[in-house]
Structure formats: structure tokens, C-alpha cells
């Protein structure tokens, strides 16, 4: 496994930069956001011009006005976490694992990502350049641990891309504020004269916890890599997914098809090696204007067929509007299943896979509601003897009736009148919707009893009859001739 690498980004004037993006006239003006704390107005965020005058977050507003009498005060208190979340979503193109670090930072797990941009230096310049071009003051650092990258971004002058393993040496010369400690712990360290990390690590480890609690040794171990630290991504990564960033934005359908084919090749190869097949695939196109175009397809059985999956997506590619260009393609499989050889028996016969893929293409064009699959059910009466199931339903243990039955059934059965000898002879003719049909041939009867636990309906005697024109019908008599209630005849189905 490759050594982990992290990029910490620090927005030194996050909220005030956000405000000047909306109000450009305040670009060079010293202004602050304030909030009331303990009956005092306190600075919550200060602009770059205000910070240059010595004004900082946490300062009492009255003191700030002493330093800058013309200070502009904005009585708003915006939420930095919401803004950080929106910004973090734009970094998905650089890594699948991006987390916010309130109140003014973002952490990116760049392990295995930088080489796609030609190395960490180009990767770093591309990210920081985009942020600064968007009007934000930002500084970042790359290191082996989250804690080290966080401290370097805020305190280290150079290098901001720390070579693997060098973080331990460089951390020692940084101030204690580089350890992400609470103000209370930092105040205790200042009182004891422990201003640098070097001073802290020279202390016996067993004395740190009783004096400072668990926070200080934990932050030390996280920064130096003795304890592994995990991010909470803004978008949880899907276990089976592939990414394809583009150095130049893609604006043509041919380019989109190439990207999709490349991603399918990578994802399906991995699935095949692990004995898996996807059931759902999501293709996302991240445009230069930060809009995301998304399309999804589903399959009736686990598959890793590149050709089949491409055909499912192919009809939707024409709906993708690249605008100024697409800079990142992502293919994810949020639902996968074991793709064992006996899956081929799902549809039966050697052509099962071809039929399943045909159904996939139809379902992805028309929706699964347009397709129906039926299994036999444990009932005697024909209208109850089947159930509708999903397309991916496993084979049923029940068997279909062996006697011929029509494909088309009337629901409910249509009443008819018949001319028939008694007691069990087939009809000689029957009248349906005003038309008389003479019976030329007949077969039956076949008795189907009613399930007494469902209702108290009478049994049925079914006949297959053929008229003089060769049309075949399925009719039945409900009840016996010797019943107190007269028997009724019905037309239940038509044979093809």
C-alpha cells in the first residue's frame, strides 16, 4: 500500500473573501463581521485589509476601532461550515476523499491522485491557483499526515510540499499552535514556556496526559504519524468506482464516449478479478462551471461486460451538454453482487445472458415498469395462479400447469350463454356480446376447485372449444347442474 499523502488548505480570510466576491467594492476596505459575546461585540471574521492593521478574530470591536477608526462593521455572522462544504464539493475532481476542517480549512487525501496531474507540484499549483483565481486568500501544504499538513499550511514558510518522511524533522521547529490544540491547552503551554513543538516532545510522555489531558499527546501522535487519523468525506466514497480527470476540458461526444469506455474498462476489470458484477452504475460528468451531469443504468443480473454496459449508457450520451467542457469523469457502482457462473441459469438455456442484456436495454429506455415477469403461484384458479416479480427475481420452485392454457385471460371472466347437453357435455354453441359461435370441436371438462380458505365460490369445469373458423376459446361452467343455484357460463381466455 502506498504511503498516504494529504493536502491541507487554509483559507486565511474565508468569510470576508466570500463577502467581497458578492460585494467587489469592499475589496480593499478594512471591514469585519461581528457577533455579541458576553455583552460585548467581538470580531468573528476580519478582511485582509483589517488584518493588516492588526485586527483579528476574537478581538473586542472597541479595541479594533482604536486600531482602525474607519473600520466597517457588518453585523452578520455567516456559517463557514456551509461555505466550506460547497467549496469542498468542487474538489471532488482532485480526490474522492475531501473533508471540511472548520472554521477555515479543507483536508484532501491525495494518495494516488497527484500523478494524474504530472506530480505533486503541478497538482498543488493547479488547486491553489484555482482557489486564488476565485478570489480567496489560500495557502496549502502537502505532507504525510493530516496534522502535519495542517500545521505546515499555517506556519511553515517553505517547503509547502514536504517530501515523504520529512514532516517529523520540520514539525519540531514549529510553534505549539501548529498542533490543532484548544485555546485552554495553548494557554497552559505558554505559561510553562513550551512555545515550540520541540520543547513539548522533549518532555516525558507520561507527564503530558496528567497535566494536559488526552488532547495534547493525541495531537502530537497524529501529527507525527504514530496514530492514524481518518477523514469524514463530504461525499462518502463508493467502494467500486473509477475517476478520469482531464488536463483539457472535453467538449465532444466522442471524447465523452472515450472517457466512458476507459472507465468501464478499469471498473469491469477490477470487478471481474474480484468475482463481482455490478447491478447499478452511475456516470458523472463534472463540468468546468462546477455543474455535475449524472446518469444511471441498472441491470437485471450482475455483470462486468464492458460492451453491454456501454450500450446501456450510449443512448444517453447525446443528452450530455458539455458547455465549456467537462474536466472530470467518475464512474461508480454503488450496488454490486457476486457474479458466480450459475448466474447464467437465471434465465435458463445457453441464451440466458443475451436475453438478460436485451431486457436491460429495454428497461433502461422505457423504465422497468414497461416490463413484467411472472412466476407460478400455488393456486388452482388461473387468475390467481401467477404473480408478478422483479426482473432479477431468482427462479421459482413452483411449476406452471402442464395443461394448455391461453396467453390472454379476461379479468374478470366474461359471462356467456351456451347451448349444451347435460350433465357434462361440452357446449354446442355459445353467445358472446351478441354474436353466436358454433362449436366445431371441444376438449374437456377439466375441473378446478376453489380454495375454500379464500372464498366460497363454486367449482369450475373448463372446456377448450374451437369454432367453425378455427378460433379457440377457453370457457368454463361455474357450479353444477344439480345445484339449487343455476350454473353460469363464462369465457375466460383466447388462444393465439
Outline the structure in words.
The protein has 496 residues and is of the alpha+beta class. It folds into three domains: 1-237, Reverse transcriptase/Diguanylate cyclase domain (Alpha-Beta Plaits), CATH 3.30.70.270; 241-351, DNA polymerase, Y-family, little finger domain (Dna Ligase, domain 1), CATH 3.30.1490.100; 408-494, no CATH class. Helix content is 28%, strand content 29%. The chain is built from 14 helices and 19 strands. It has helices at 14-22, 48-52, 61-67, 80-90, 120-133, 146-155, 167-171, 183-191, 197-201, 205-212, 215-224, 253-273, 306-317, 352-366, and strands spanning 6-11, 31-37, 40-46, 72-74, 98-101, 105-109, 138-143, 241-250, 276-287, 292-303, 326-338, 373-376, 386-389, 408-419, 429-432, 435-448, 460-467, 472-478, 488-494. The protein has a six-stranded antiparallel barrel with strand order 14-15-16-17-18-19. The protein has a four-stranded antiparallel beta sheet with strand order 5-6-1-7, with helices on both faces. A hairpin with a 3-residue loop joins strand 5 (98-101) and strand 6. The chain starts with 5 loop residues before the first strand and ends with a strand. 31% of the residues are buried.
Amino acid at each position: 500500500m502506498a504511503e498516504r499523502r494529504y493536502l491541507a488548505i487554509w483559507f486565511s480570510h474565508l468569510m470576508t473573501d466570500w463577502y467581497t466576491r458578492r460585494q467587489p467594492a469592499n475589496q480593499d476596505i478594512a471591514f469585519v463581521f461581528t457577533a455579541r459575546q458576553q455583552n460585548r461585540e467581538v470580531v468573528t471574521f476580519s478582511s485582509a485589509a483589517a488584518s493588516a492593521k492588526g485586527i483579528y478574530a476574537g478581538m473586542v470591536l472597541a479595541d479594533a476601532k482604536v486600531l482602525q477608526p474607519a473600520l466597517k462593521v457588518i453585523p452578520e455572522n455567516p456559517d463557514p461550515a456551509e461555505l466550506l462544504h460547497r467549496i469542498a464539493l468542487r474538489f471532488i475532481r482532485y480526490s474522492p476523499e475531501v473533508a471540511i476542517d472548520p472554521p477555515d480549512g479543507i483536508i484532501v487525501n491525495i494518495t494516488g491522485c497527484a500523478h494524474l496531474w504530472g506530480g505533486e507540484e503541478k497538482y498543488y499549483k493547479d488547486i491553489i491557483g484555482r482557489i486564488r483565481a476565485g478570489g480567496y486568500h489560500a495557502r496549502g501544504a502537502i505532507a504525510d499526515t493530516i496534522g502535519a499538513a495542517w500545521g505546515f499550511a499555517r506556519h511553515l514558510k517553505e517547503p509547502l510540499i514536504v517530501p515523504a518522511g520529512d514532516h517529523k524533522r520540520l514539525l519540531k521547529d514549529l510553534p505549539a499552535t501548529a498542533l490543532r490544540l484548544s485555546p485552554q491547552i495553548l494557554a497552559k503551554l505558554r505559561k510553562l514556556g513550551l512555545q515550540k513543538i520541540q520543547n513539548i516532545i522533549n518532555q516525558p510522555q507520561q507527564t503530558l496526559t496528567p497535566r494536559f489531558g488526552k488532547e495534547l499527546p493525541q495531537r502530537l501522535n497524529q501529527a507525527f504519524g504514530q496514530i492514524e487519523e481518518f477523514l469524514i468525506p463530504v461525499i462518502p466514497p463508493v467502494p467500486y468506482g473509477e475517476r478520469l480527470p482531464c488536463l483539457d476540458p472535453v467538449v465532444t461526444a466522442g471524447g465523452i464516449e472515450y472517457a466512458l469506455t476507459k472507465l468501464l474498462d478499469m471498473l469491469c476489470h477490477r470487478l471481474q478479478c474480484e468475482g463481482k458484477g455490478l447491478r447499478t452504475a452511475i456516470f458523472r460528468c463534472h463540468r468546468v462551471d462546477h455543474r455535475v451531469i449524472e446518469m444511471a443504468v441498472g441491470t437485471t443480473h450482475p455483470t462486468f461486460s464492458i460492451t453491454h454496459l456501454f450500450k446501456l449508457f450510449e443512448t444517453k450520451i447525446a443528452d450530455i451538454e458539455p458547455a465549456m467542457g467537462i474536466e472530470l469523469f467518475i464512474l461508480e457502482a454503488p450496488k454490486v453482487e457476486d457474479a458466480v457462473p450459475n448466474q447464467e441459469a437465471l434465465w435458463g438455456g445457453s441464451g440466458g445472458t443475451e436475453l438478460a442484456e436485451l431486457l436491460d436495454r429495454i428497461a433502461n429506455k422505457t423504465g422497468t415498469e414497461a416490463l413484467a415477469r411472472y412466476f407460478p403461484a400455488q393456486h388452482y384458479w388461473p387468475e390467481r395462479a401467477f404473480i408478478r416479480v422483479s426482473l432479477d427475481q431468482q427462479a421459482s420452485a413452483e411449476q406452471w400447469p402442464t395443461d394448455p392454457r391461453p396467453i390472454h385471460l379476461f379479468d374478470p371472466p366474461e359471462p356467456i350463454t351456451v347451448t349444451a347437453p347435460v350433465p357434462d357435455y361440452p357446449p354446442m354453441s355459445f353467445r358472446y356480446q351478441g354474436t353466436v359461435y358454433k362449436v366445431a370441436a371441444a376438449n374437456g371438462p377439466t375441473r378446478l376447485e376453489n380454495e375454500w380458505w379464500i372464498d366460497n365460490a363454486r367449482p369450475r369445469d373448463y372446456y377448450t372449444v374451437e369454432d367453425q373458423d378455427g378460433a379457440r376459446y377457453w370457457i368454463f361452467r361455474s357450479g353444477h347442474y344439480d345445484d339449487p343455484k343455476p350454473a353460469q357460463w363464462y369465457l375466460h381466455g383466447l388462444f393465439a
